[in-house]
Design goal:
Shape: globular
Largest sheet: 2 strands, antiparallel
CATH topology of the largest domain: Lysozyme
Distance between the termini: 38 Å
Structural class: mainly alpha
Strand order of the largest sheet: 1-2
Order of helices and strands: HEEHHHHEEHEHHEHHHHH
Low-confidence stretches: 233-257
Helix content: 40-55%
Length: about 300
């Protein structure tokens, strides 16, 4: 069985279609409709740019790799249910082990199936923006045969366009994220100033198109994660050592201070390497060669 045109449109709407490689929230290079090296059809890398035709070609190649597993574990599925399974598998790669699939095959109560499906809303141990709503949309396809409505028309030019379906709460979180990083989102609820988004995209080597899609959201999440981890390291440092009452602090613990500082230094270096794309964005104007070097990995 193959994904229908409506299923392809829904999947493209969920993933966005990004023609310039970017890092996802956990740092994996991504391009086109959410394709990483794990897709088996492309190996995204820093600076990679593809055409729309190439993106469409890679999309079809990747679908051909994902569809057989869905056909295998969802025998007899009607087209909307199959398309929902493809969307889920594309995003998670877990169609063979997801408990909702077993419940679906066993014809369990609809609420049990839906609950097991929407539980797949985390990445890297945390709930990711948009995933809860995506799972709900997949549940509607799976159980009700309902495809997502097309995105609404673009807002006025003063405001950026959201390329993915997002709830008011999620848009509010995006606005707050931009604000925390020093990019004024503006006063209009459920909108972000286009000029602020363009400035953010320019600072982070993204397409400066005032479109808030997968690449911009992933980069925003990485910036916020890096900011949070840096603040935690600065405030807490390493756990304090417990010193027995009988120990002579001068003769026996003179190594503790250097050890703590060494631990802090190693932790800082690991954070710097993990978020080297964030450092590149912050140093681009003063040290463009360093920024280019950091983005090359």
């Amino acid at each position: 069985m193959q994904t229908s045109p409506l299923g392809k449109a829904a999947l493209s709407q969920e993933e966005g279609d990004v023609l310039r490689a970017y890092r996802d929230p956990v740092g994996v290079w991504t391009i086109s409709r959410g394709l990483t090296a794990a897709s088996g059809v492309v190996k995204p890398r820093a600076g990679m740019i593809i055409t729309q035709a190439e993106s469409d070609r890679l999309f079809d190649l990747a679908l051909a790799r994902y569809e057989p597993a869905v056909t295998e574990v969802m025998p007899g599925a009607k087209q909307p249910a199959f398309d929902a399974g493809v969307s889920f598998h594309w995003n998670t790669g877990a169609i063979r082990r997801a408990s909702w699939v077993k419940r679906w095959r066993e014809k369990a109560p609809r609420e049990m199936i839906r609950a097991a499906l929407v539980a797949w809303n985390k990445g890297g141990g945390r709930v990711l923006p948009g995933l809860t709503a995506r799972r709900e949309r997949e549940a509607l396809m799976l159980l009700n045969g309902m495809y997502p409505a097309p995105l609404t028309a673009a807002p006025p030019l003063a405001h950026a366009r959201f390329a993915l379906q997002m709830s008011g709460i999620e848009i509010g979180a995006v606005r707050e994220g931009f604000r925390k990083l020093g990019y004024d989102p503006g006063d209009q609820v459920n909108a972000v100033l286009a000029k602020s988004v363009v400035r953010f995209q320019t600072d982070h080597a993204l397409n400066a198109d005032a479109v808030i899609g997968r690449a911009t959201l992933s980069t925003l999440q990485r910036r916020l994660d890096a900011r949070s981890k840096t603040a935690t390291a600065t405030v807490t440092g390493l756990p304090a050592a417990t010193v027995p009452a009988t120990v002579n602090p001068v003769s026996d613990l003179q190594w503790v201070g250097p050890l703590i500082w060494a631990g802090l230094a190693l932790y800082a270096l690991s954070l710097a390497w993990r978020y080297r794309d964030v450092i590149a964005a912050k140093t681009d104007r003063l040290f463009p060669r360093l920024a280019t070097f950091l983005r090359s990995f």
